[in-house]
Write a structure and sequence with these properties.
Helix content: 25-40%
Shape: rod-shaped
Largest sheet: 6 strands, mixed
Distance between the termini: 151 Å
Oligomer: single chain
Amino acid sequence: MNASGGPPGPGWWEASDGRWYPPEQHPAAAPPTPAFTALAPGMSLPPMAGAGVGIPTGPSAPFRPPPTSGPPIYAGPPIYGTMDSPKAKIPTWGVALICVGAAFLLLIVLAIAIPTFLGVHEVADSNDAVGTAANRAAQSDLNTALTISKAYYANHQTFAGMTPAVLQQMEPPLTFVGPTEPSTNADMISVGSVDQAALLVNRSSVGQCWYVLVVVEANDQQSPGLPTAPGTYFTSDHRPVCDAADLPAGPWTPNAFPLS
């Protein structure tokens, strides 16, 4: 403290206790600025606070990443429907209903496919060697029926009374049926007749229908679309029913079967 009662030097300040203090101890005084000196070649800075956390301390110091501590990062809303979420289960009655529907659909497909397959199989068989032999046998039986039909006409000059029973007596090995009863095999002949015309039909074992029409004199009793000129006509068709009541459109070939 100065004996004169004044500050001992410039910048000194008097505190509440009545004493004088140097300017660097004043509460409002700024901290002194450190003086920097140039480093000589080969020198390095001393270690600093926080050294080793992302700040290398020398040429050979390894790099260390900054700390990862801090607030959590928002990753977006949760994703539902993952493998960890509970799976929806189909009730038992639903599974049973699906099985019944599938079985019903399968039955419909089979009901359509099987007849189609069998029909295609019969058509294919009619063109191979087995089918040719079966058709030849049907033609042979039909020629036999034609022979006895002509013999009947020669004796009666009409086909009007030529019933299946009469033909059966004339040729027992064959089976004769009426015009509306279909032939199911080669030796079963469906017979239709009017006064001056007769029709004979049978079915081969491969499903081919064979027809023979005998016309002695043309008349109005014949079905529309049939040949009207006198002669013997032949045709064939592949259909499920072979009888003398349902005739094909033709073409009718005179004097010979159109197919072998």
